[in-house]
Specification:
Length: 223
Amino acid sequence: MPGDTMDALREEVVSCRTCPRLVAWREAVAARPRPAFAGETYWGRPVPGFGDPLARLVVVGLAPAAHGGNRTGRIFTGDRSGDWLWAALWRAGWANQPDSVSRHDELRATGAWVTAVVRCAPPGNRPTPEERDHCLPYLARELALLPNARVLLALGGFAYEACARMSAVRPRPPFRHGLEVPIAGGRWIVCSYHPSQQNTFTGRLTTEMLDHALARAGQLATS
């Protein structure tokens, strides 16, 4: 929209209460911290994107983790998925450190922006189609505010489907790790399995696979 800014978008995201199920869940989780996080005050709100406004690479996840981003207030921060992602971004030169522990730490992204399709932690990590569609305009506005972005790295099938839907990809190739799909504006969608424990503990996603996906995304982003 005309006159839009990243700060204005962030304020809208953080204050959003559109989806009653997600609002109830994120706040219930925040009210009952895990024993490992006893004494912490959870963020308990929608989580905005984070990174470099000059980003050429945009990493798109599913949603904040209940005891990760929903606790810390920063996407892919404070959980195992975040540990994997930021370590990989650091190895590839997109981040200044491999750890993302708190929104108050010294983490900086260079040339990359990290975000999610859905901004609230969903029950069972399963947003409904309606919840996805409520949030998708936020992602579209983010991309409009990242004029240098050339590659969307979609982490998992949910993120890929949302990015393809937003980009009007027709026909839509089936999701697979390593898939590359050209989209309007000279941009690309590159797919990777999500760095969830379900994938990393079973070996479905290895560090080498994630590094390769990031390397390819980097090649397309700078070509």
